Amino acid sequence: MEDFDIGILFERGEVLEDVPGNSCAKIFEYICDRIVVPSGLTAHQLQKELVEREKVLSTAVGNGIAIPHPRYPLVKNSSESKIVVAYLREPMDMQAPDVRKVYVMFVILSDSAQFHIKVLSALATLFKNEKFRKGIQACPSKGELLDLLRRISRPELL
Description:
Largest sheet: 5 strands, mixed
CATH class: Alpha Beta
Number of domains: 1
Number of strands: 5
CATH architecture: 3-Layer(aba) Sandwich
Strand content: 15-25%
Radius of gyration: 15 Å
Structural class: alpha/beta
Distance between the termini: 24 Å
């Protein structure tokens, strides 16, 4: 994963707080209506693709975290690949392996299957990091989240 900086994807993406909804469809609709949707897509198309993927298998990974993403890459321009972070108003049961309710979603929008795998791998590494998991429980703003990422990637800043 040389030359791969997941922080860039967080910089490109939005951070949404207090996201309402009692179903994935409602939550995805809210998210898609409030982000910059990649060119060539509408908010409705993106929401539909996220819902369809969620029907296949829950994207909840445990520890209150889910990683929603379309079934296939929808982003046409790699510079529009990003991660959108959404903190839910009310934690929601998404059938996570550890049965914890999801309170935060990291929505992945990528331009290729290969890049998507790199993003998943990088997120998995972050999710294993106790400092990161504790940090996101405070629902940090975008600036705070980017600062948290910098501190984790550069432990001498701790």
